[in-house]
Every structure is written in structure tokens, then in C-alpha cells.
């Protein structure tokens, strides 16, 4: 009975930690997760995201660039989300199987299931705009938007339109480096 309780407590702790994806599926090198530096020409870390990239503007994706992807990486995943949404984390953009040698995404990435380089869009939380970027559009107040980059040691065996849960499940045990950029928007 004590072993069963210990097991259940451990499982509950693991589930609680999985609110932070890095706790669920990050790999480490030398005892710590390798870092990817991610930047945007549109805004600085922690700064306001310009209106152009929101539902109040043209709702196009900002240009992003990154460095620090390990040589052994086979693909990259991008997840943009808003943890401040009233009904829980809102996924604004999900792009996976980005080629590992990619160092940037241009502004206004097309909203198509698959890009010419093989990258695939997953579903976001927008009902009518399920594929591709859906910019910040908070109901009220200031929200934080996290652009998260994960370098994987594999490509994901998923089709365009996969959910963030499916992508995160497939990523487990394959993240070799990660980084994030946070911007804010207020309506």
C-alpha cells in the first residue's frame, strides 16, 4: 500500500511539473539543458509586440532568428503561446519539423499546412484560423507571449494539423536544446 501511495504521489508530482514542457521532455548535456538564443527584429525580450503582428494590425508573424542549435539536431519546433489567456494557455502558433540548419523565419510566414522546406504547421487555438500564426489578441489587459524554440534529435512523425499535445508528446525525450523569447501585448 505504501509503495502504491509513493507511486501515485510521484506521478502527481510529474504531472504537476509537466505544466512546464522543459520539465517533461528536455534532454541535458553535461547536467544542464543547452540554450538557444532567440531574437526578433520586431521587439526586444520583454517588450511590447508591435500592433502590426496582432489582430489589431495585419496579424502577420514577426521575423525570428536563433543561434545555438546543436550540430546533432535533426529538426526544430516552434511553439508560441499565451499563458495569461482566461481559459488556460492559448496556442498562437505551432510549427514543427523545421529543418535543423534553419537559423530564421522571415516575417509573414504563409498560413499553409506545409512549407516548401518541409516544416509543418500544427493547429493553433483559433477556431477559424487553425493552421499558422494567429497573433496576440487579448480580451483585455497585458498578456505575455512566449516564442519557444526546441531543437530535437529527431524529426516528428506527425502530419500537418497536429495538436500541441501531440507535438509535445512526440518531443518527449528528444529535446537537446531550447530557448524562448517573450513579448507582451495589451488591448
TrEMBL record:
Protein name: Phospholipid-binding protein, PBP family
Naturally occurring in which organism (per UniProt): Desulfomonile tiedjei (strain ATCC 49306 / DSM 6799 / DCB-1)
SUPFAM superfamilies assigned to the protein according to its UniProt record, in alphabetical order: PEBP-like
Keyword terms: Signal
Pfam families registered for this protein in UniProt: PBP (PF01161)
Segment forming the signal sequence: 1-26
PANTHER family: PEBP (PHOSPHATIDYLETHANOLAMINE-BINDING PROTEIN) FAMILY PROTEIN, UNCHARACTERIZED PROTEIN YBCL-RELATED
Keyword Zinc attached: no
Entries under NCBIfam families matching the protein: YbhB/YbcL family Raf kinase inhibitor-like protein
Entry-linked InterPro entries: PEBP (IPR008914), PEBP-like_sf (IPR036610), YbhB_YbcL/LppC-like (IPR005247)
Amino acid at each position: 500500500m505504501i509503495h502504491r501511495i509513493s507511486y501515485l504521489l510521484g506521478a502527481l508530482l510529474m504531472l504537476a511539473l509537466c505544466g512546464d514542457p522543459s520539465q517533461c521532455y528536455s534532454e541535458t548535456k553535461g547536467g544542464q539543458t543547452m540554450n538557444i538564443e532567440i531574437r526578433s527584429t520586431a521587439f526586444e525580450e520583454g517588450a511590447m509586440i508591435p500592433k502590426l503582428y496582432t489582430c489589431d494590425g495585419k496579424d502577420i508573424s514577426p521575423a525570428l532568428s536563433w543561434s545555438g542549435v546543436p550540430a546533432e539536431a535533426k529538426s526544430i519546433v516552434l511553439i508560441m503561446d499565451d499563458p495569461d489567456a482566461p481559459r488556460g494557455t492559448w496556442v498562437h502558433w505551432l510549427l514543427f519539423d523545421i529543418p535543423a540548419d534553419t537559423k530564421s523565419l522571415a516575417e509573414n510566414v504563409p498560413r499553409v499546412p506545409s512549407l516548401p522546406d518541409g516544416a509543418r504547421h500544427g493547429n493553433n487555438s483559433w477556431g477559424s484560423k487553425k493552421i499558422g500564426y494567429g497573433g496576440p489578441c487579448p480580451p483585455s489587459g497585458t498578456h505575455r507571449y512566449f516564442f519557444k524554440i526546441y531543437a530535437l534529435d529527431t524529426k516528428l512523425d506527425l502530419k500537418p494539423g497536429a495538436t500541441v499535445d501531440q507535438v509535445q508528446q512526440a518531443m518527449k525525450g528528444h529535446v537537446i536544446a531550447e530557448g524562448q523569447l517573450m513579448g507582451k501585448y495589451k488591448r
